[in-house]
Amino acid sequence: MVQKTPTTLRPLHDRVLVKRLPEGDQKHGSIIIPDTAKEKPQEGKIIAVGTGRVTDEGKNYPLAVKQGDRILFGKYSGSEVKLNGEEFLIMKEEDILGVLAHSGGM
Fold first, then answer.
1. Pairing of strands 96-99, 70-73
2. Which of 3, 4, 50, 58 could crosslink 11 through cysteines, CB 3.0-4.6 Å?
3. DSSP-H helix ranges across the chain
4. pTM for this one?
5. How far is the C-alpha of 53 from the C-alpha of 42, rounded, in Å?
6. What are the CA-CA distances from residue 25 to residues 29, 34, 72 (Å)?
7. Residues of 83-92 as b/e, b for ≥16 C-beta within 10 angstroms?
8. Sign of torsion, CA 61 64 68 72?
9. CA 100 to CA 33: how far, in whole Å?
10. pLDDT tens, position by position, 32-77
């Protein structure tokens, strides 16, 4: 029997691999919005990061984000990829709007 080896993806340069975070059910009044009509969440968790941006002079600048960060990104950011049956986004660091901080009181 041949075992399937899971595929891994290491982003290059200033790219990151992001897993969208699920949103709760959207409900407006008594109307439940079906999955097909919902907007995809713009919040995700960084799964893997590239080595950094390389300038024209050959200098390497590390990314400001790291694996495990919870981020907010633009609605149409990144390219969708499917790995091992799961959907991910691969995007440049510049498409990331910000890193979400954990707040203890909410």
1. antiparallel
2. 50
3. none
4. 0.73
5. 24
6. 12, 9, 19
7. eeeeebbbbb
8. negative
9. 26
10. 655 555 566 688 999 999 999 888 898 988 999 999 999 999 888 8
- Phi, psi dihedral angles at 37 (to 5 degrees): -100, -10
Distance CA 10, CA 95 (A): 18
Say how far apart CA 99 and CA 70 lie, in whole Å: 6
- Sign, CA dihedral 44-19-54-63, equals positive
Query: How many residues appear in the chain?
Result: 106
**Minimal CA–CA distance to 42: which of 92, 89, 103, 94?**
89
Q: Please give the C-alpha separations between residue 28 and each of 17, 25, 38, 64, 90, in angstroms, as whole numbers.
A: 32, 10, 12, 37, 32
Enter the tokens of residue 2: 């041949």
> Nearest to residue 63, comparing CAs of 77, 74, 49, 73?
49
Can you tell me the distance from the alpha carbon of 37 to that of 56, in angstroms, rounded to the nearest whole number?
44
